[in-house]
Each structure stands twice: as C-alpha cells, then as structure tokens.
Amino acid sequence: MSTDAVANLLHESRHFPPSAEFAAQANAQPGLYDLADADRIKFWESQADRLSWHAKWQQALDWSDAPVAKWFVGGKLNVAYNCVDRHVEAGYGDRVALFWEGEPGDTRTITYAELKSEVSKAANALLQLGISAGDRVAIYLPMIPEAAIAMLACARIGAVHSVVFGGFSAEALRSRIEDAAAKLVITADGGYRRGSASALKPAVDEAVDASPTIERVLVVKRTNQDVAWFDRDVWWHDLVDAQSDQHDPVPFDSEHPLFILYTSGTTGKPKGILHTSGGYLTQASYTHFNVFDLKPETDIYWCTADVGWVTGHSYIVYGPMSNGTTQLMYEGTPDTPTKSRWWKLIEKYQVTQLYTAPTAIRTFMKWGDQFPAEADLSSLRLLGSVGEPINPEAWMWYREIIGNNNCPIVDTWWQTETGAIMISPLPGVSATKPGSAMTPLPGISAKIVDDAGKEVGLGHGGYLVLTEPWPSMLRGIWGDMARYQETYWSRFSNRYFAGDGAKWDEEGAIWLLGRVDDVMNVSGHRISTTEVESALVSHPAVAEAAVVGATDEVTGQGIVAFVILRAGHEHDDVIAELRNHVAKEIGPIAKPRQVMIVPELPKTRSGKIMRRLLRDVAENRELGDVTTLADSAVMKLISEGLATGGTED
Ligand code: PRX
C-alpha cells in the first residue's frame, strides 16, 4: 500500500506526441523551456514585452513584501488599450473580435474598430455615472458582448470589476457587492437559457435593495422581458449609446488593481481574489498565445466558459483580446435547440481551438457520438480542457470524436488565484498522456511535497505547491490580507499551497488528484462544503448539516448533504424544499444532488465532523476506519437512515 500523503494507483502509458506538421508551425518551440530555465526573470520580462507599455518598468519583480508580489514595478499601461486600441492602430480594425451567437440564433459580429468605439462609449458612460479609478463595479450579465465591453470599460478607466456569475442568487450577489463596497451594478433584463428568457434583474433589485453602497444600476436590454424600474436604474442603450466614441485611455501603474473575483474557500465566506494589471495581462497573454497556439490572422478560437468565472476573464477577455484574437462567444446551453448545438457552431464559424471543461465532455459522451457526427468538425486544430481532472476515457473520447485524432489536447491546470495557466502541455512540444496536465509551463515552478513539506520523487504523490512567484498571481484577498497569508502561505513555508493533491509519474508528468481541503469541485466550479452547510442551517427545518463532495460520473463531484432535522419538520417535501433553499441561497450550481436525513452525524471527540466517513457513505463505499468516532454506533444509524435519502431531479 502507498504511504504517500495522496495516493493514486492509476498508470497510464499512452503517449500522444504532436504531429510533425503541428510541431513545425507551433508558436511555442522546445527552446521556450531553455529560455525560462536560463533566467526566469528575464524570461518574464521578454513576455511582458508582448504588451504595449506607456512607461517601461524599472524592476521586473519585487518580492520583498512576500507573499504580496509586485511585477514590472514602475511600469505603466492601460489594459483595455492593450486588448483593443493597439490592434486598431496596427491596422487590424476590420478584424473580427467577436462572433457572438445568442441562444435563439440571433448573431452579432464586432470588429476590433467597433469594439474600440463600444468600449470607449461605455467608459464615458461609467465616468458620467461618477465612477472613477479604484471604484468597484459589480457586473452581473449573461454571455452577451456587453459583458466583455463592460469589463474592458472598467479597465480603461481604472475601475475594478467584480464579475458575479449570472447563475448566482440575489444573496450571493449582495454579499459580493457588500464585501467589495461596489458603487454600480451592470446587469441585463435577462438572458436566454434552455429555450426561454431567464430573468436577471429581479435578483439585482433584491440584492441592491439591501446594498447601501450601490448608487446606480446600468441595465442592458437583452430579452425585452418586463422589469421593475427604480430611480437608480438606467438603460444601457439610453446612456451608453449617447456617449462619444472617443476616449483616451489613461495609463495606470502595473500594480493597479484590475479585478476582484470571488471564489470558494474552506470557510463559508467567499474570498475576493485580487488581480492587478501588468503581470496579470502578461501571463494571460503569454499563456493564451503559447498554450492555444493562437494565430491571430487565421484562427477562430472558442472558450465555452462563462465570463463569470476566471476562465472567462483570462481566456475570453484578457488573454485572447490582448493577442488580437477572433473568437466565438455563445450565450446559451449546449442542448438548445438540439444536443448538437456546439458542434453546429464549430462548423458554422469554422472554430479552430475549443477550450472547455471535463464535465461538458463527459456530458457529451453520455449523450452519444451521433450529435458531434451531425457536424463537420474538421476546422478544429487544438482542444483544451480546464476546471478539474479529466479522466483518461473522456480525454480519449475528446481526442477521437471531437478532434478526429489530429488535434493536440492541452489539459490546463490553474486557479482563480493563479490568474492564468500554470501547468499544461505545450501543444507543439509535449507528448501528452490522457489525463495528465504534464509539466509546469516555462517560467513556472511547481513541486509536489509530503505532509512535512519535503519534495517527493517521481512515482510519488503529495500536495501541489508553487515555489516561485509568477506574474499573474493573486495579490491578496480583498479586505483580508491575514486570510491570504493564512490560506495559501501557512501550510508550507515560503511556498504557495494550491489545495490540490498531485503526483509525479515515473516519467515526470504531473497528475492532478483533486482537492485535499473542504472544497468541492462540481462541474469545474469550486463550492465550499461550509457554504452549503451554512445555507442548509439557515433553513428553519435544519438543526445540523454536513456536506461532502461525492464522485459523480458527469460533474466530477456531486454535492451530498447529511441533515439532522429539527423536531416537527419531518414532512414529505422537506428534501425538495432544502435542495431548493440551497439553490436560492447560493445558486442552482450549489443545489445538492442528494439530501440525506440522518439522526446523527459522525464526529471526532473534539467535535469535528468526519467528512471522510460521510464521503464513504455518499459513494456507497465500505466504511473507513471509525475508531476515532465519538460514538461509533452513529455510522450504523446513518447507513440505516439512508432510506430517507432524496436524489436529483
Ligand atoms: O482543483 C483544481 C481544479 O480547479 C481548481 C481551481 O478552481 P477555480 O479557481 O474555480 O478555477 C477553475 C478554472 C481555472 C484547482 O485548484 N482544476 C482546475 N484545472 C484543473 C483542475 N484540476 C485538474 N486538472 C485541471 N486541468
């Protein structure tokens, strides 16, 4: 038996090197690793040269205030100028920036010149609303071009955006507005999902009613559905469309804050991950160019993430646009009107790179090969995966059925906190293995350590740590620097602990093994067990709750809740009611797959809930060691109590 901190018994011996043809034309050649190895800091400086700087930096890295890094110190730039204006100035104004398709099939095509006017008008509108550099703006939008335009408009005037995923509840939006003390919300009447208009504005109304810092709400008309209207509300088409399309981008310091993005940690309170400008954009740009082999003149790139997640920030907005990419943006769900929607989109727009999540890939596998077969996918030349470990079966299916065996797959490991891709194959260089993210990118230093912080050797597992600062690293947790230090830098001294288990195989490839803390990964989205527990306990029927992530064939992990009811609340609908309550409190993605009503919860003598045992029950495994249980009869009670377990709809 393995004695590693985190064990993995999987062995994978298949290798898929890139074709000679792909390798020859690839942006990233093997020399990139040597360049970074020779002088890491100089390497990052040469990557920063990808951007247009208003003033050159004096120092590449200042780590004297560790763990808060400063990159390209003294440099000045405007992020929006880098993503928009400079392409127009270079003569690419007519190049399409966005091919956008709404779920009902309506389309918009926006060139870089048009994007420049739209972003400038939106920037002028924000200024008119009294937003200035450093102010926080919450963005709660569907997948429409205004989402990217709003982000870039903030960046242009130095306002800090906090995008909140449109699937989050009013309460989730409210708490994020409060934490960031945002002054403005940018939203829409609604968006299209699953064939109908789904409202957004009511959640904003509810959140803003309880948010004293919000002064105005800027509303995009997307669905034309009825909305309640208040004095603080203003329509985007009234305000933005009336603005001048001229706006001079102001240069900001390299360390000027660019955005806050909230993510789940091990406690109930989401963390506002803070990213700044120069270093973030450098790494987003560098990774997008090299990992996706982006050829701006000919490629049509498609990242299927929502802008509400970090993948949408770094690989729809900032990375791709800094590289002058032409990309596809799609509003809706993959099975509307049919399960071949994505594949038809790829054929229609001649998509060359597809970047998506394992949960989507597994869903498509389940739906069957007939749907991709309905479309011509031969335009694809590279496939990407992100958000959770991709199992070898799904990797092989992606390669064969979607990639026709001739597209390199890049399995990219990173986090909201890392800002950009950290571990990934280079598509023209690496001989990939199904299920492995392979090796740290040039410029990145990752190690695997044991409980004591000692590096483990090839063939062994442990905890993934990052050992050198990187340009797009988070600069802290908004309003709580002590928590930043405590969460990421206290487990192993001077090393960033990512919260993931990983192992080296015998050949030096990294295999990610999932979270080792109390954070679940559901469909590639992080949700904390504590957060769901707090939501459950806020319901009057619940006395106590414990939540675990159980392996799920499609979503990676499914949320399973064990709940002790208060006396008198044992009625037939209570399970459905609790599931809906969590969806309302946090958002539909946090809705438990199962709620099990139990008489007791297993606890250690110190009162800590033993989630390991609950996970065993949730996954129907034989129970693990129960000797540390305060009362070992509890597990028997729980197993018997499973008769009252409710499952998914
Ligand atoms: O557990 C890892 C998993 O997703 C976590 C980061 O989640 P989030 O901040 O929401 O960002 C997701 C998109 C970057 C990581 O700690 N994860 C992400 N990518 C991979 C992954 N696990 C395995 N393989 C990946 N490629």
From TrEMBL:
Record GO terms (molecular function): acetate-CoA ligase activity; AMP binding; ATP binding
Span of domain AMP-dependent synthetase/ligase: 90-478
Span of domain Acetyl-coenzyme A synthetase N-terminal: 32-83
SUPFAM superfamilies: Acetyl-CoA synthetase-like
EC code: 6.2.1.1
GO annotation, cellular component aspect: cytosol
Entry's Gene Ontology BP terms: acetyl-CoA biosynthetic process from acetate
Keywords: ATP-binding, Ligase, Nucleotide-binding
Pfam family, one: ACAS_N
EC category: ligase
Stored InterPro entries: Ac_CoA_lig, ACAS_N, AMP-bd_C, AMP-bd_C_sf, AMP-binding_CS, AMP-dep_synth/lig_dom, ANL_N_sf
Alphabetical list of CDD domains matching this protein: ACS
Chain ranges of the AMP-binding enzyme C-terminal domain: 531-608
PANTHER family associated with the record: ACETYL-COENZYME A SYNTHETASE, ACETYL-COENZYME A SYNTHETASE 1
NCBIfam families documented for this protein: Ac_CoA_lig_AcsA, PRK00174.1
Family as reported in the entry's similarity comment: Belongs to the ATP-dependent AMP-binding enzyme family.
Name of this chain's protein: acetate--CoA ligase
